[in-house]
Amino acid sequence: MNLLTQPWPWYVSGPLIGLMVPALLILGNKPFGISSSLKHICASCIPTQVKFFNYNWKAESWSLLFVLGVAMGGLVAGYFFQNPNPIRISEHTVSDLSALGVKNFSGFLPEDLFSFKALLTLRGFTLMVVGGFLVGFGTRWANGCTSGHAIMGLSNLQWPSLVATCCFFGAGILTTWFILPLIMRL
Amino acid sequence: MNKIKFILLGFIFGIILIKAEVISWFRIQEMFRFQAFQMYGIIGSAVVVGMISVWLIKRNKTKTISGEEIKIEGKPFNKGTVYGGILFGMGWAMTGACPGPLYAMVGSGVTVILVVLLSAVLGTYVYGLLKDKLPH
After folding, report:
1. Spatial separation of the C-alpha atoms in residues A25 and B72, rounded to whole Å
2. Is A165 among the domain residues?
3. Residue of A nearest to B41 (CA)
4. Residues A74 and A120 in one domain
5. What is this structure's pTM?
6. How many beta-carbon pairs below 8 A join chains A and B?
7. Domain shared by A51 and A128, yes or no
8. With contacts defined as CB-CB under 8 Å, which chain A residues touch B89?
9. ipTM value
């Protein structure tokens, strides 16, 4: 039981994530990738004449089932295999984030930034709503996210995925260092 | 049954995401600040295992369980790879989550992340509206 409640080290979880690639290919002939599910949600839930969403999303229903499974896995792991101890974060990160004004380090997320109450502040709105919008808009424009480009694309040695991965990381690093401090002052 | 396997695979992936703690905003901060190896170890080893798997599948001409030939379609490069990649990178640093972890977190009971997920759906929708006007 300890195995299930303790966090898994990178050398266990990383290879397991990598195995999703052959598992999806061999079991279903599908490329590993999550962000296209957001497109299928639009196509299936929002009535629209927009060409981009007018396709047979039912043929891609595997992707919606997959993310449904991800949420169910999150539910089981979150409720039944919950780590009883607080998450262990690097001391340097704790001190950097404290300097920016983060106070709560006990959960997966800082509750002072990510909560329904924080949603009503400019800072929380920017992090959650603007941030989420950028995730959806950016992944579709780039035609993939961490799973589709960084893991699946690189596994298949596709150079455009290497470009995409570099852009993800470059922009993430610059945003963390230079834009997050500005957002934290909102 | 044919479709249930996708729920099952997603289920396993969701558990891994939680147990690896990659769904944590703090882990993503550690990564972008170069203050912990964990995320680099996870993504790096996932890519290595994925690469070896794809190489083996191609070399052995492995078929799917239903006997189909395995096809992997490439993603062509266009300007969106860069512009979209930059926007996603920004969103990743702000929310501390890429799309997979968003679903896992909503499932794990962090209900406020549903707002982030819906905003990502909205972002995808607005991209669809503007697609023809954006450089590609």
Report:
1. 8
2. yes
3. A10
4. no
5. 0.97
6. 487
7. no
8. 138, 167-172, 175
9. 0.97
